[in-house]
Design a protein that fits this description.
The chain is mainly beta. The protein contains 5 helices and 49 strands. Among the domains are: 275-287 and 301-378 and 408-414; 501-617 and 626-727, Methylamine Dehydrogenase, Chain H, CATH 2.130.10. The strands form 13 sheets. It has a 4-stranded antiparallel beta sheet, with no helix packed on it. The chain has a 4-stranded antiparallel beta sheet with strand order 5-6-7-8. A 4-stranded antiparallel beta sheet has the order 9-10-11-12, with no helix packed on it. The chain is globular and about 85 Å long. WD repeats lie at residues 536-569.
Length: 729
Amino acid sequence: LACSHHHCAFPVSRNGLCVWNAATAQPLYLSGHHYSISALSFGNKINPLLVCSASHERVIVWNLDECMQKVEEGFTPRGIVIGTLLGMVLHIRFSPDDEQVAVCAGNQIYMLSAKNEAILAELDGHLAPVTAAEFCTWEKSMLISVSEDRTFKARKLYLSLYIFNFFNLKVWDYSTSQLIYQSGIITAFPLLSLLIDEENKQIITGCAEGQLWIFSLISDHNYRCVAHIDLKKKQEKFCNKMWKSGKEIGEGQNNSKLCKTNNMRPEGSVETSLPILLIEHCDFFVCFHNEENIYSSQNTSYFWIGTSTGLLIINLANLQMEALLSYRDYSDLSIQIARSCALTRKAANGKVLCLIASMFEDMIAVLEVNLAALVRTQHSDFLPCGNEKSLSVIASSYIFSFLTNHYFRVIGYFCKLNYFPTGVKNTVKDKPLVFHNKIKSSGYTAAPRMAMFSPNTNLKKKEVSKWKTSCKCKNKEYPLESYPPIKYEKEISVTCKPTPIFCVQYSGDGELLACGQADKTVLIFNSNLIDVHSVFSGHDGAVNSVGWSHDRKWLVSASEDRTLRVWSICNKEPALILGKEKFHKTVRFAQFYFIDTFILLCCGAEFHLLSFHLDTTKDDLKRYKQRSVCKLVQKFPMTSAMEITSLSAVNEFYSYIVLTAGSNRALEVFDLNAGCSAAVIQESHVRSVHQICQNKGSSYSTQQPEAYNVFLTTAAGDGIKLWDLRTLR
C-alpha cells in the first residue's frame, strides 16, 4: 500500500494497480504487470506526481498526470519499465529528487534510474531479504537499509554525471559504493520498518515483536542506540491510564478487555506479537494551530506507528504514547487485523488519510483520522471543544467533506468480490474492484454480525430468479415434489477385486463424483457412472476423505499416511503435497473453505485452518520442486475431546461457522470470525457422531430463505437428529 497527499495506491486483482484520488473519489486503473504487485511507493514531488510499482518480473514508474490525460483521450496509460527480473521485491523508495529508485529485492538493493531501464548500482551485504530502505536527505547519496537478518546498514553512494550533447543522453555511474556502517544483530526478530527523523538526525526501526530502536546519525555519535521502546508495555500503560481517568478509547464496547490488564490476561486468551508495519511522521502541531493549551514544546517530534491491531502516536521527546486507535474497538470497521498499512505524511484540513489491508480477506479500508479530536479525547491536557462525540463511523464513497467533531471515520472499502449481489449497477460489473456506499454480500465484506445465526435473507423472489438466470453454473437441485429415493438405479464395480470405498463426494454442479478408496487411489466418475473420468494415485495409505473446490477445478484428498494432496482435474500430478512432518496424527475430513480461500482438515482433537496458493507450472531446471505453497493460519482444538469424529463447513458461500463432533459425543460450534468456540452441546448423542450434514447450497437457491443455514443433521450409532442452530436444540 502507498499514500501521498490525496492519493492512495494499492494492487487489484493481484497484477493490476489502482490509484484512488480521495478528493474526487475517482479511481485510476493501471495495468502492466503479469505477476502480483508486491511493493508500491509515491514520489516526493507533487508536480509531477510519480508512483512506482514492482512485481517479480518488472518495476514500472507511472506519471499520474500523463496517465490521467491518456485515459481522458481514450488511450490505455503506459508506464516506464525501469527494471526487469529482479526477483521478489519487498520495498521500493524514490530518492529525494525522484531521479532514482531504490529497489529491495531479496538480499540486494538495486539503484535504478526513474527515467529509463538502467541499473545504476547493486548493493549487497545483507544475509536475508531487505525489508526497508530510506534516503538520508541532509547527507547526499546516503542510504539506510534494514533486513530480516536483524541488522541495519548505512551506505555512501558516489555519483558521477556524464552528459553527452548528442541525443541529450545522460549516463549515471554508480559503479562505486561504500559501506559506512553495519550494525550487529539488534533483536531476535526480523526488522520490518524504517524511518529517518530529519529534524533530530535519527533513524527509527521496528521489528516483528513490537520493539522500536532509535539510533543517532550525528557524525560523532557513531550510530549509537539512544532509545529502545517496548510498544506492548507502552500500550498497556496507556490503556490503564485511560481506564483510571475514565476516558474512552473507542465506542466503549471493548474497553474493559483492552484496559483492565493488570498483568492478567482473560481466560482463554493468548498472547500475540505486535509487528510494526509502518513508521511515519505525524503532522501533530499543524492540527493544533488554533489551540492555546498545547501541553508540550512545539519543537517535539511525533510519529505514527502502524501495527497489525491499530495506530499509535509516540512522542519522541519523552517516548510516551499520546494516542491509540485500535481497530477492534469499532464495530463498523470490518478489518480487525491488518496485514499492511500506509499513512499520508501531511495532514489535510487537520485530517490524515490511512489505508489498511486485511490479514485474511481481499479487503482494503480507507480511513480518515481527525488527529486533533483523537488526541483531545484521550489526553487530559487537551480541553474538549464543545459537545464532541468520541467516534462516528460512516461508510461513504463520494462525500469527502465531513463534520470536524469526529476523529475517525471509514471513507469506504475496496473489496474484490466473487460475485456482484443484486442492486449493483451494470457499469461496474466488468471492473475487478467495486466501491459502494454499503457492500452487501454473504461474506467478510460486511462488518461482523453480532447475531451469528441470523443471516440476511430478505430477498425478493424476482431478485432470486434474476440472480439464478445470470449465473453461468446452475447447480442441480432435487425436485421438492418428488419422493425421497428408495431404490438404486445402477451398480458398478470400481476395481477388479473387492476394495472398500471410504468416502464419496459429488462436485457442486453434480457432474462429477469422487471416490476415495482403500487401495490408495482416488477415482473420478461422471455423474451417470458410465465411465471413469480420472484416476489419481500417490497416497501411501487409504484415502479417508475427498473434497471439491467451489470452481470444480481442484480436489483435495486426505489419507491414512498422514498426508494431504490437492489435485488438478486437468492434471494427474498433485499441485500441492503436505507431508507427514506437518501432522502428528492421521489427517481426516479435508475440505475447501470460504469459497476456496482456505483448507480445513482435522488432525487428532483439533482442526487446522490453512491458507494456500496453487501453481501447477514447472521450472525446467527444478521440475521436482512444487511451486504451490501452503501456510498454517491457526489450530482450533475441541473442548475435552480425544479425537474429532466429524467436521462440516460451507464452501459454496461465505460463512464463519465450522461444526465439529468429537469422541466425547459432543457437538461444538466454532465462529472463525471471532476465532473461538461459540457453543458446545454436551452428550449430543448416546454414541459418537460420525456424520454432520448441513445445507451447503447457495444462499440464493433455497425456496425458504428463512431456513437458510439454520438446520443441520447429525448421525450416530443411536440414530439421526435434526438441530436448530438458533436454539442449539
